[in-house]
């Protein structure tokens, strides 16, 4: 049982957690991170996971590793750029709008290893084809930086606010798949999740009569998650795929510091499950093309946390559409669009577009893709407040995948 002092301090931590999240522009950079939207360059270009696309691997759908022959491996890295622009409408003494006042412009660039996996598939002595695979993936990203100045009459600095979130939760996965029929495969997987993200919030005041603020959060998440998937060839031109990931039960030590006060406790979090369904279609034409559709659902309203409470979160629905077209010279071109809402609010949507291609040399293939996204919202939408601050986010990503087949 918690002592009254410890309970009060955790209540204060909950208050500052909500306050810190409200100051954040990128909505998904909370104590639970921003979930991975794709695991390789092909998925990013098409703006979908690729549960119905052979070659996407066990991180997307464990059944897919049985759709290849022999050894297959891939390594993915990328560059992520974010710009966050904040403004507030200014009114004169007669309540007339006189324009927008910029309160912050923040840029950040991160270089990350997004994933790596290897699998082997083969038939043994007349038995159905079986496959075994292992992978590592960046499942939840926490990197976020915000710097905001407050000025008196636009000239004199009165306070400087900074929020720095760092770290990631990585998944270490294994999967087993079987292809009992020529048109169907199924797979099961197990993922160990591990990561120690941290968040630091500081606010320094020029006025010596005010006390500077320094708040720190340190999490240590450890846990497991199960996955399952299936892939089927309905006709020679139509493929269907489905992938499910269970709720991840992670726990570990948590520490909170507020200036000179530090407390610790054990945190238990139930991250929501998710499932994705997809279809791919290859129309008959002179140049091979594949059209893909995908839907992914994550019920964030089922999130569990024994230490922190937030306003009810929203289920995230992500819709993806992509086209992969192989030109006459054999060069593939990929393009995709997606739309999803934030788990902070179902009324805040993020639209993204991507494109990419590949270069093959012998048994090595290099896929490269680029993507961009944009959304605008205000604090009233995100947090149910009357704040007039408007946040505009622009996102750009570059991803490179090397594959061995």
The CATH architecture would be Beta Barrel
Provide the helix percentage.
under 10%
Element pattern in H and E? HEHEEEEEEEEEEEEEEEEEEEEHE
Tally of alpha and pi helices: 3
Strand and helix map with partners:
Layout: H1 4-23, E1 34-35, H2 41-46, E2 70-91, E3 97-122, E4 129-141, E5 144-152, E6 156-166, E7 168-181, E8 184-195, E9 198-205, E10 213-218, E11 221-235, E12 238-245, E13 248-258, E14 261-271, E15 274-281, E16 289-298, E17 304-305, E18 316-326, E19 332-341, E20 349-361, E21 364-378, H3 379-383, E22 389-404
Antiparallel strand pairs: 1-4, 2-3, 2-22, 3-4, 4-7, 5-6, 6-9, 7-8, 8-11, 9-10, 10-13, 11-12, 11-13, 12-15, 13-14, 14-17, 15-16, 16-18, 18-19, 19-20, 20-21, 21-22
Explain the overall architecture.
- With 405 residues, this protein is mostly beta strands.
- The protein has one domain (4-404): Outer membrane protein transport protein (OMPP1/FadL/TodX) (Porin, Beta Barrel).
- The chain has helices at 4-23, 41-46, 379-383, and strands spanning 34-35, 70-91, 97-122, 129-141, 144-152, 156-166, 168-181, 184-195, 198-205, 213-218, 221-235, 238-245, 248-258, 261-271, 274-281, 289-298, 304-305, 316-326, 332-341, 349-361, 364-378, 389-404.
- Strands 2-3-4-7-8-11-12-15-16-18-19-20-21-22 form a 14-stranded antiparallel β-barrel.
- The chain is globular.
- The relative contact order is 0.18.
Keyphrases for this structure?
405 residues, mainly beta, Porin, 14-stranded antiparallel beta barrel, 3 helices, 22 strands, 62% strand, globular
């Amino acid at each position: 049982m918690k002592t009254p002092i410890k309970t009060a301090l955790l209540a204060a931590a909950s208050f500052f957690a909500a306050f810190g999240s409200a100051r954040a522009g990128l909505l998904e950079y909370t104590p639970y991170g921003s979930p991975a939207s794709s695991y390789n360059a092909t998925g990013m270009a098409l703006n979908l996971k690729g549960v119905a696309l052979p070659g996407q691997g066990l991180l997307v759908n464990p059944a897919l590793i049985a759709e290849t022959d022999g050894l297959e491996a891939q390594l993915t890295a990328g560059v992520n750029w974010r710009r966050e622009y904040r403004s507030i409408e200014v009114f004169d003494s007669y309540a007339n709008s006189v324009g927008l006042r910029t309160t912050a412009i923040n840029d950040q660039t991160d270089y990350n290893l997004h994933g790596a996996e290897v699998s082997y598939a083969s038939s043994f002595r007349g038995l159905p084809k079986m496959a075994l695979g292992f992978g590592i993936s960046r499942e939840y990203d926490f990197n976020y930086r915000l710097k905001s100045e407050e000025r008196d009459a636009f000239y004199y600095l009165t306070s400087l606010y900074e929020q720095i979130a760092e770290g990631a939760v990585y998944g270490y996965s294994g999967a087993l798949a079987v292809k009992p029929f020529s048109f169907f495969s199924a797979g099961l997987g197990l993922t160990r999740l591990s990561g120690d993200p941290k968040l630091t919030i500081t606010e320094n005041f020029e006025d010596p009569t005010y006390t500077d603020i320094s708040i720190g959060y340190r999490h240590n998440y450890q846990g497991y998650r199960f996955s399952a998937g299936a892939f089927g060839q309905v006709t020679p031109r139509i493929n269907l795929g489905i992938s499910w990931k269970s709720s991840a039960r992670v726990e570990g030590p948590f520490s909170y510091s507020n200036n000179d006060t530090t407390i610790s406790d054990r945190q238990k979090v139930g991250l929501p499950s998710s499932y994705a369904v997809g279809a791919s279609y290859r129309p008959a034409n002179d140049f091979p093309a594949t059209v893909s559709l995908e839907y992914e659902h994550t019920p964030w309203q089922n999130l569990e946390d024994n230490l922190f409470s937030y306003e009810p979160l929203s289920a995230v629905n992500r819709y993806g559409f992509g086209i992969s077209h192989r030109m006459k010279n054999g060069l593939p071109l990929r393009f995709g669009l997606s739309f999803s809402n934030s788990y902070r609010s179902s009324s805040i949507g993020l639209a993204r577009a991507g494109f990419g291609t590949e270069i093959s040399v012998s048994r090595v293939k290099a896929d490269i893709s680029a993507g961009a996204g944009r959304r605008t919202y205000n604090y009233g939408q995100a947090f149910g407040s009357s704040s007039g601050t408007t946040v505009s986010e622009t996102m750009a990503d570059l991803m490179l995948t090397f594959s061995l087949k």
